[in-house]
Design goal:
The complex is a heterodimer. Chain A is α/β, with parallel strands linked by helices. Helix content of chain A is about 35%, strand content about 10%. A five-stranded parallel beta sheet of chain A has the order 2-1-3-7-9, sandwiched between helices. Chain B has helices at about 40-45, 55, 65-80, 85-110, 120, 125-135, 145-160, 180-200, 205-210, 235-270, 385-395, 400-410, 420-450, 505-510, 520-525, 535-545, 565-570, and strands spanning about 5, 15-25, 25-35, 280-285, 290-295, 305, 315, 320-325, 330, 350, 375, 470-480, 485-490, 495-500, 530. The longest helix of chain B has about 30 residues, at about 235-270. Classes of the chains: A alpha/beta, B alpha+beta. At the A-B interface, helix 4, helix 5, strand 2, helix 6 and strand 5 of A face helix 1, helix 4, helix 7, helix 8 and helix 9 of B.
């Protein structure tokens, strides 16, 4: 925790940096926190070459140090609450850091004390002010929206009311991103993602079913500390988390290159930790920080444990990637090795149309260009009804404990 | 003169629940439980590879994120007669059991507690006095300390002083029926924060076997977490040591903090053992964490029911008595809406007859919810921790009696009073202790197996659909956080021909059928207190005592109105 057992920093009275110094939190402890955030935010390699996206502990420290607590509205539409549960699991910026120290979470149905008309009044009040909008869940449009209603209003109505004064919009999780399981064939409720409804401004898509908790909170901390949402790929996914294909950084990649492949679950190769490609791994098609950030306090991740990746950060993975245990389809280019197939499929996953084994660098360049464009597109003013104060950067780092 | 009261959204639950009430000013006279979300996952499952089904069904719910996946793989394995290795059984038990313990703790501290714990009052506490009182209550818990409580109080006071109350905005903090001392309130807030830290750690049992949580991975035929003590990334001694540490911390928190907290808080709300009494029938197939293919076996208890509040006779469970009714739901049945259909013969044709949104009142129409109403032999029944604990009591289960009896004595409760708001909350805490201890037993069995050379986690023999019968059906039962769960699958030529989930939150949260209210409705109707319709705190206490999980209340949905007739596939 950034402020262990401590008093909370209060809007408007002082900057976070001043607050921490007064509280006796050492500059070193604060920077350690910022370093852990930087490790998460730097999971996407493409960020490194992009000045806008370059994330260092120092830049986070500078941004966070000048913040006040902005308002957050966190909707849950047609969804399963797995994304909020993932937030509860985040270990770097914890949910208690988030709601007590970093933002004012003015509406969230899972956590808020009030219910019914009192909750609805809190939402209405928050909607009247500038706020960051986070959305879990899809928007079912069939039959006039009757498949999800909240306080008598359709999910679409609820979303549009909260989007009106939102300074930034985050679609968190596969449901909000593209509709997820309920939007899969035959999509009985007409479920769509947030960016199909909120079309007048960019939407940041924090992808995954669910996304890793630390990635969700890092997306918000990034925005709070830099005054703008993170640059994204063409799907709106933040580059710091979704710039890397799992297959390219997988610890089992050397096994793949050596042709050491699990043929069925729990065979000798499985017990030796070999590659899961032949039992259906979607790592070659999937852009996700799972291998780097990992899950649940960096404890493990699906491929690490021995189950193939099902590709949950990718659009329409329930239709495009199933049956999950079939080996990735060949793409019809003669003479390709298995490696070639995987690479080519990776290009398709990137949206790079065209057969052939494109050099990964080419795709990266294309991707990087899109990223820069997206970053320009999503630049937004910061947030909250309390004016942000700009304070000079804190004094150079020293290890001295300030006197309380 | 009746007054209409609407609670929508019901917050601190999973999913979307609306409650409509009639009150006479001080008491609730009538209640309607209304599920206002629908996803149609069962229809999406049609024609899929049954080995993939768990990954779809799992996304029914991300709170009880393990349970639908396990019921799904069990149902498929039952259908195609697919035995799994013993170690895979134990891994599933450990994953499900740890998830239930975590779920119960999260439910109490983060979804229920603010109905009883006043955070504004907590800021008035004397932290030293609070620490002394807490240490007397829970002597083994190190964070019941003056410095810790002082820090929490200061943090809370600052939030309140800031005017930005966040999740505490518009709470019912001036309601006259908050009863705890500021010191107990402060302890409650402190443990709210502690429980967040605890759950992040102990849930990693899911991660080490399933790769992540929420939504860990499962596998038809076993588990995809191979055991090899001589490899660095498989289940090895490092991971076994971690799991042991997590079980130890799980047991410690529920024994040393959770159960004592619940007993202490309920002690101040003793009348809630007479409030929230609901349907007098309970159904439990076994102890919490049971999961298996086909008819329940070795579930720790005789699967059965207790009817009409009679604890002396356990009525044997017969799945043929399960029927679902749509007389209050937005569906129609081909041969008439007034009869019930068994899951195997179920059909679901949605027919929304409610008002066009935005709407203000639903209950004038006999149909008011997207939940069907399950009945057992024509009766509304309650499922969940209370049902399981009561069933274990009726069957004189020694482990349960050992934990339960002294608490009943201390709170001066009769076992029958567990059918109440307080009883459902208490049942969850008692069960968390029992299940956490069971985790240790399962883990010991697992490691003994490894020492004896049993490292098999998957059976490849029935993996290929070519080895399956052309046509089959199966059911998986599980006793999960919110009660008895069953998944029913029909498989035709290697694909899912039909899929049905009958879930705890339809048993408890469904609407009227056969002239009986559903359990949520029954608990609130007929005199439940509600002093201030604008601050329906008492009703929330009772609703939360069921741990509503409304996304689970889904059924096959076909927006085109096409019928899905299970009987035809047979």
């Amino acid at each position: 925790m950034i402020v262990p057992d401590g008093e909370v920093w209060v809007t408007g009275e002082e900057s976070l940096a001043e607050h921490l110094l007064r509280r006796g939190i050492s500059r070193r402890a604060f920077l350690a926190f910022c370093s852990s955030m930087a490790a998460v935010l730097s999971a996407g390699p493409l960020a490194a070459g992009d000045a806008e996206a370059a994330v260092s502990a120092a830049s986070i420290a500078e941004g966070l140090g000048s913040l006040t607590r902005p308002a957050l509205v966190w909707l849950q539409l047609q969804e399963c609450t797995g994304c909020m549960e993932s937030v509860l699991r985040s270990g770097d910026t914890t949910v208690e850091d988030l709601i007590l120290n970093l933002v004012s979470l003015d509406y969230n149905e899972l956590l808020m004390a009030a219910a019914g008309s009192a909750a609805d009044a809190a939402l209405a009040a928050a909607n009247q002010r500038d706020h960051i909008l986070v959305v879990n869940g899809s928007v079912p449009l069939a039959e006039g929206g009757i498949y999800t209603t909240i306080a008598g209003r359709t999910a679409e109505q609820v979303l549009l009311e909260s989007a009106a004064k939102a300074t930034a919009v985050f679609a968190v999780g596969a449901c909000a991103h593209w509709g997820c399981v309920q939007a899969s064939h035959p999509n009985p409720t007409g479920a769509v993602g947030v960016d199909q409804v909120v079309t007048d401004r960019p939407v940041v898509n924090v992808a995954g079913c669910p996304p890793i908790g630390e990635v969700i909170t890092a997306s918000l901390v990034y925005t709070l500390s830099r005054g703008a949402p993170p640059p994204t790929d063409a799907q709106g996914r933040p580059l710091f988390a979704y710039g890397q294909r799992i297959h390219d950084v997988c610890p089992r990649r050397a096994r793949f290159d050596a042709g050491q492949l699990v043929q069925h679950f729990d065979d000798d190769a499985a017990r030796d930790g070999h590659c899961l490609y032949e039992v259906g791994c979607r790592g070659p098609e999937t852009f996700s920080p799972c291998p780097i950030v990992q899950w649940n306090l960096h404890t493990d991740w699906p491929i690490g444990v021995g189950h193939p990746c099902i590709g949950c950060t990718e659009v329409q993975f329930y239709d495009r990637f199933t049956p999950f245990y079939d080996v990735l389809p060949k793409v019809g280019v003669a003479g390709l090795s298995v490696e070639g197939d995987a690479e080519t499929i990776g290009m398709i996953g990137l949206g790079v149309v065209g057969a052939g084994v494109a050099a990964h660098a080419v795709a990266s360049t294309i991707w990087g260009r899109r990223a820069v464009k997206a970053a320009e597109r999503v630049r937004l003013p910061l947030l909250g009804d309390v004016p942000t104060r700009s304070v000079p950067p804190a004094a150079p780092a020293t290890d001295e404990e300030p006197q309380p | 003169m009746s007054t209409r009261v609407v609670i929508d959204p019901v917050t601190r639950i999973e999913g979307h629940l609306r409650i409509e009430l009639l009150t006479d000013g001080r008491k609730i006279t009538e209640a309607w439980s209304e599920t206002t979300q629908f996803k149609g996952i069962e229809l999406v499952l049609k024609d899929r590879d049954p080995r993939d089904a768990w990954a779809f069904a799992q996304r029914i719910c991300g709170v009880c994120t393990v349970v639908h996946a396990i019921a799904s793989v069990r149902a498929v394995e039952d259908a195609v007669a697919y035995p799994i290795p013993k170690q895979a059984d134990l891994i599933r038990n450990l994953v499900l059991g740890s998830q239930i313990v975590q779920d119960h703790v999260i439910h109490f501290y983060h979804l229920q507690a603010l109905d009883f714990v006043n955070v504004v009052n907590a800021a008035k506490a004397d932290p030293t006095k609070a620490a002394t009182a807490a240490a007397a209550l829970e002597p083994r818990y190190a964070l019941n300390s003056g410095p810790r409580f002082t820090a929490v109080k200061e943090q809370l006071a600052k939030v309140l002083a800031s005017g930005q109350l966040g999740i505490f905005s518009n709470g019912y903090w001036s309601h006259p029926d908050y009863r705890l001392t500021p010191e107990l309130d402060l302890m409650g807030v402190s443990h709210y924060l502690d429980a967040l830290t605890w759950q992040r750690s102990m849930i990693r049992i899911n991660t080490l076997f399933g790769g992540k949580n929420p939504h860990p991975n499962f596998l038809v035929g076993g588990m995809a977490s191979p055991i090899n003590l001589d490899n660095e990334i498989t289940i090895n001694q490092v991971k076994l040591d971690k799991i042991q540490a997590m079980i130890t911390e799980a047991v410690a928190f529920v024994e040393d903090v959770f159960l004592p907290d619940v007993v202490a808080i309920l002690g101040a709300y003793a009348d809630y053992a007479t409030i929230g009494r609901s349907s007098p029938n309970v159904l439990a197939l076994g102890k919490a964490g049971y999961n298996g293919p086909g008819h329940p076996r070795n579930s720790g208890l005789t699967p059965g029911l207790l009817l009409d509040g009679n604890l002396a006779d356990v009525v044997d469970f017969d799945p043929a008595h399960i029927e679902e009714y749509v007389t209050s739901g937005w569906y129609s049945y081909r041969d008439g809406d007034d009869k019930g259909l068994a899951p195997w013969d179920g059909e679901t044709t949605p027919r929304y007859t409610g008002p066009k949104p935005p709407y203000t009142w639903l209950a004038d129409d006999p149909r008011y919810t997207f939940s069907k109403a399950p009945r057992y032999d024509g009766r509304a029944v309650q499922v969940g921790p209370m049902a399981r604990v009561l069933m274990a009591y009726a069957q004189k289960d020694a482990e349960t009696l050992d934990v339960l009896t002294p608490i009943l004595r201390r709170l001066q409760l009769q076992p029958g009073q567990l059918n109440s708001t307080a009883g459902r909350i208490l049942g969850r805490a008692v069960e968390a202790v029992l299940l956490a201890r069971q985790l240790q037993s399962w883990f010991d069995e697992f490691t003994r197996g490894i020492r004896a050379g049993d490292v098999t986690t998957f059976n490849p023999d029935r993996w290929e659909p070519s080895t399956w019968p052309a046509s089959s059906k199966g059911v998986g039962f599980a006793e999960v956080a919110r009660g008895m769960l069953s998944h029913w699958v029909r498989i035709q030529d290697g694909t899912v021909a039909n899929y049905q989930a009958v879930v705890p939150s339809t048993w408890n949260g469904g609407g009227r059928a056969l002239a009986q209210r559903g359990p949520y409705e029954e608990a609130l109707s007929g005199g439940h207190p509600l002093v201030d319709p604008a601050a329906p705190l008492e009703a929330l206490r009772t609703l939360h005592s069921f741990d509503p999980c409304q996304s689970c209340g889904i059924h096959v949905l076909d927006a085109t109105g096409r019928e899905l007739a299970w009987a035809k596939v047979q």
